[in-house]
Amino acid sequence: MTRFVGFLIGAGFGLAFVLANSGPPLDPTVALVLRILAVAALLAVIALVVALARRSGAGPGTGSAAEPVRDGPRMRFGPFYGVVVALEFVLLFGGVQVLRALDAPMQANVAWIALVVGLHFFPLARYWRARSILGVAVYMTVLGAVGLAMAFTGYPEWVPLVSGVVPGLGMLAGVLVSLALTNRAAGASADTSPARSA
Q: For the residues 132-157, what does the mean pLDDT come to?
């Protein structure tokens, strides 16, 4: 079940990125559509997690697959995870203070958050032995770095879109696709299980 919690955390952060940053200079209608899509994606993630959790807990004699769903990374939330998250918070708040001291535009904070969140996925990918998370790590890190460059080169108004909305939508889409593929594979496995074919 901890693996599903990880998906929910990722989707929750993706939604927060979109809701917090989908404002000007985006057209209000576009911003509203993006927020609605983000909420719909989160609801779809929750529905898929519930479906997978039920299938994962099903055993022999229930009419479902006898084996629990095991696709995807095995997420562990042990001491190493705690150290990574603690370091992430230190970097987040410390970096925001440094940006304030440098008199950086407020929008630079969004880019810094995306950069740090992206970087924290690198050690977690190794800890969880999940290469798939490296894609998220690179995606978030690059968009955060691009946003910081924009903030310091005279284009701060677009940083929330580049380093907030786009990463948020990407996280939601990535989680949704991953869960949908896992659910599909689990369904195919259930259809070909001995209990189903008997």
A: 94
